[in-house]
Inverse folding.
């Protein structure tokens, strides 16, 4: 049996890499983070939900639509409120949102459309639908509000 010994000489390879634009990237990241921390994305989502809920809410006198508003809880959350009452002083938005045995509603993903006297189509539920529909567009809203810092 023959044995061979192979000797290899190792040589060192040294490569220097210099990055360009790293400081600019860091500055853009800081601006984007500042916008997120200030609640800019949450504000944009809230505004979209409120506008959609108002657009698709039943419209008779306009009181229901005027009563829909968003309340910012903190920089990362909000709630949608509609606390109007009818002529008798009874709150009725929940009946239109959740339904009763006399008022049929759909689901947020598949709301029940109704025609108002003005010919406008309303949805039941209207707030849940607005939240569901807007949640489908959060990536787009993120691109508009946050990724603009990277252009």
């Amino acid at each position: 049996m023959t044995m061979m010994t192979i000797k290899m000489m190792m040589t060192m390879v040294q490569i220097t890499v210099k990055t360009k634009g790293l400081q600019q990237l860091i500055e853009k990241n800081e601006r984007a983070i500042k916008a997120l921390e200030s609640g800019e994305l949450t504000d944009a989502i809230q505004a979209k939900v409120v506008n959609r809920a108002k657009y698709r809410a039943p419209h008779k006198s306009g009181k229901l639509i005027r009563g829909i508003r968003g309340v910012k809880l903190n920089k990362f959350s909000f709630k949608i409120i509609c606390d109007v009452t009818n002529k008798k002083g009874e709150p009725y938005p929940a009946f239109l949102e959740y339904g009763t045995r006399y008022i049929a509603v759909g689901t947020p993903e598949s709301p029940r459309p109704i025609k108002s006297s003005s010919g406008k189509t309303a949805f039941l539920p209207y707030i849940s639908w607005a939240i569901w529909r807007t949640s489908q567009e959060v990536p787009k809203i993120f691109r508009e509000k946050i990724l603009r810092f990277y252009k």
Remarks:
- The first helix runs from residue 22 to 38.
- The first strand starts at residue 68 and ends at 74.
- The chain has one domain: 25-150.
- The chain has a mean pLDDT of 88.
